[in-house]
C-alpha cells in the first residue's frame, strides 16, 4: 500500500483530479454563499441578535460529527451525500419560513433557526471532508496549490453572495427580498454540486486504511498516471498534540479576525447598503489574494509563508486602528475600504496556511476528525465573541482584532522555530507521529 501511496503522490494531473477539485470547490462556493446568509438573516429577522448568535452556534457540530463519521464509516463520498442532503433541507425550511412569515415574530425566528441549524451542520461538515479528500488524492506537486485554490472559492462564493445582497437591496430596498435572492442562488449551486459529486471517485487512501485494497486499486486507476516527479519524505519535529495546538491557535486568530472584520463590524456599526458594500470589499480582497496565495507555498518554505501571513495581518490592522482613532467611525470609511481590502489579503494568506496544514498534519484514519476538532475551537470562540463584542464601541472592537492577530503572529514565530516544512512530501511522512528521541 505504501507503493500505491507513492504512485498517488508522484502522479501527473488527471481528469479525475480535476473532477475532485471541481467538487470540493463547488462545496466551498456554497460555504461562501452560506456565510452571507447569517448577515442577511440578521436583517431579514429585524436585527435579531439571537438569530445571529444561534446561527453560528451550530457550526462545530457538523465539523466534529460529520468529520468523525467520514473517518469511521461514511468515507469521503458518502459523507458528501449526507452534507448535501442537510444543506438542501435547511435551505428549504429557511426559505419557506421567510416567505410565509416575512421574518416577523418569535416563531419566525425559531423556525428560521431550525432550518439554519440543519443547513449549517451540513455545510460545516462538508469542509473537513473536502480538505481531507483533496489532501488524500492530489499529487504532491499540486497539493498546496489545490488546498489553497479550492477553499478560495469560499471567498468567491461570499463575494457573489455579497453582490447578490447588495444589488437586490439597492433595487428593492428590502432585506427580505435580498435574503430570499441569496437562498435561491445557494439552491442552484447545490444542485450543480450534487451532479458533479455523483461522478467522482472515492478517496483511495481512506479505502487503504480500511483494508479495501481491491477497491482502492480500482479507484486509483483513474488517479494514477505517469509519475511527474519523485516525492520526498520528511521527519516531523512536532507531535500530534503540538500540531493540534498550533492549528487551533492559528484558527482562533484567522477565523475570528476574518469574521469580525469582514462581517460583524459591518452589521454592528453600519446599516443599509453600506453593510453589504463593506462585506463585498472584504471578500473581493480575500478572493483576489487567493491566486498568489496558491503559488507562494510552493516557492517558499511553508514556515516562512506562515510567518508572512500572520505577521503581515497583524501589521495591516495598525493603520485601520489609527484611521478610526483620528477620523471617527463615519469619517474614516473612505480610508477603511482600501485598508480593509489589504487586511483581507493577509487574512486570505492566513487562511491558505490553515488549509495547507490542517489536512496534511494528521494521519488518514483521523484526518477529518482532527480537522473538525481544530475548527471547533475558533468556531465556538467566534460565537462567544459575537455576544461579547455586541456591546463594545468600534474602537474596542478593532483593538480586539489586533490582539487576535497578535496571537497568530506569535504562533507563527514559534512554528518557524520548532515546526517543519511540508512542501511536496509524501503525505504519510508529513502526517506521521514524531519519531522518538534516541536514548
From TrEMBL:
Domain Major facilitator superfamily (MFS) profile, residue spans: 1-424
Membrane topology, as annotated: Multi-pass membrane protein
TM stretches of this protein: 12-33, 45-66, 78-100, 146-169, 175-196, 244-270, 276-295, 307-328, 334-357, 395-415
InterPro entries the record matches: H+-coupled_symporters, MFS_dom, MFS_trans_sf
Cellular compartment(s): Cell membrane
One term of GO molecular function: symporter activity
A GO cellular-component term linked to this record: plasma membrane
The keyword Iron is assigned to this record: no
Keywords: Cell membrane, Membrane, Sugar transport, Symport, Transmembrane, Transmembrane helix, Transport
Record keyword Transmembrane helix present: yes
Protein name (Swiss-Prot/TrEMBL): Sugar transporter
Protein species of origin: Acidilobus saccharovorans (strain DSM 16705 / JCM 18335 / VKM B-2471 / 345-15)
Amino acid at each position: 500500500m505504501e507503493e500505491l501511496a507513492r504512485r498517488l503522490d508522484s502522479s501527473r494531473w488527471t481528469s479525475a483530479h480535476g473532477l475532485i477539485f471541481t467538487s470540493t470547490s463547488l462545496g466551498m462556493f456554497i460555504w461562501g454563499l452560506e456565510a452571507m446568509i447569517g448577515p442577511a438573516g440578521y436583517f431579514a429577522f429585524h436585527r435579531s441578535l439571537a438569530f445571529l448568535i444561534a446561527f453560528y452556534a451550530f457550526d462545530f457540530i457538523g465539523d466534529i460529527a460529520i468529520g468523525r463519521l467520514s473517518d469511521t464509516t461514511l468515507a469521503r463520498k458518502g459523507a458528501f451525500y449526507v452534507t448535501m442532503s442537510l444543506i438542501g433541507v435547511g435551505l428549504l425550511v429557511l426559505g419557506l419560513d421567510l416567505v410565509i412569515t416575512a421574518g416577523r415574530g418569535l416563531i419566525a425566528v425559531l423556525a428560521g433557526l431550525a432550518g439554519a441549524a440543519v443547513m449549517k451542520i451540513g455545510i460545516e461538515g462538508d469542509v473537513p471532508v473536502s480538505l481531507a479528500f483533496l489532501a488524500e488524492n492530489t499529487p504532491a506537486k499540486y497539493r498546496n496549490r489545490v488546498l489553497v485554490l479550492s477553499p478560495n472559492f469560499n471567498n468567491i462564493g461570499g463575494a457573489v453572495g455579497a453582490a447578490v445582497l447588495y444589488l437586490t437591496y439597492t433595487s428593492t430596498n428590502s432585506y427580505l427580498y435580498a435574503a430570499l435572492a441569496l437562498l435561491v442562488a445557494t439552491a442552484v449551486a447545490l444542485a450543480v454540486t450534487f451532479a458533479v459529486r455523483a461522478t467522482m471517485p472515492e478517496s483511495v487512501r481512506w479505502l487503504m486504511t480500511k483494508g479495501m485494497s481491491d477497491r482502492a486499486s480500482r479507484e486509483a486507476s483513474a488517479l494514477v498516471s505517469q509519475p511527474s516527479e519523485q516525492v520526498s519524505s520528511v521527519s516531523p519535529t512536532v507531535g500530534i498534540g503540538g500540531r493540534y495546538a498550533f492549528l487551533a491557535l492559528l484558527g482562533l486568530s484567522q477565523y475570528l479576525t476574518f469574521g469580525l472584520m469582514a462581517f460583524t463590524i459591518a452589521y454592528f456599526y453600519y446599516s443599509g447598503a453600506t453593510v453589504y458594500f463593506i462585506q463585498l470589499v472584504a471578500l473581493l480582497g480575500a478572493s483576489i489574494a487567493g491566486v498568489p496565495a496558491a503559488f507562494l507555498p510552493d516557492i517558499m518554505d511553508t514556515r516562512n509563508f506562515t510567518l508572512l501571513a500572520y505577521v503581515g495581518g497583524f501589521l495591516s490592522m495598525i493603520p485601520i486602528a489609527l484611521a478610526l482613532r483620528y477620523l471617527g467611525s463615519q469619517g474614516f470609511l473612505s480610508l477603511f475600504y482600501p485598508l480593509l481590502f489589504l487586511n483581507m489579503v493577509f487574512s486570505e494568506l492566513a487562511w491558505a496556511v490553515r488549509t495547507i496544514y490542517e489536512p496534511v498534519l494528521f494521519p488518514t484514519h483521523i484526518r477529518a476528525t482532527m480537522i473538525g476538532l481544530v475548527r471547533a475551537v475558533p468556531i465556538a470562540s467566534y460565537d462567544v465573541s459575537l455576544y461579547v463584542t455586541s456591546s463594545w464601541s468600534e474602537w474596542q472592537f478593532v483593538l480586539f482584532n489586533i490582539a487576535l492577530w497578535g496571537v497568530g503572529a506569535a504562533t507563527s514565530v514559534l512554528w518557524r522555530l520548532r515546526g517543519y516544512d511540508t512542501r511536496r512530501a509524501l503525505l504519510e511522512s508529513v502526517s506521521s507521529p514524531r519519531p522518538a528521541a534516541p536514548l
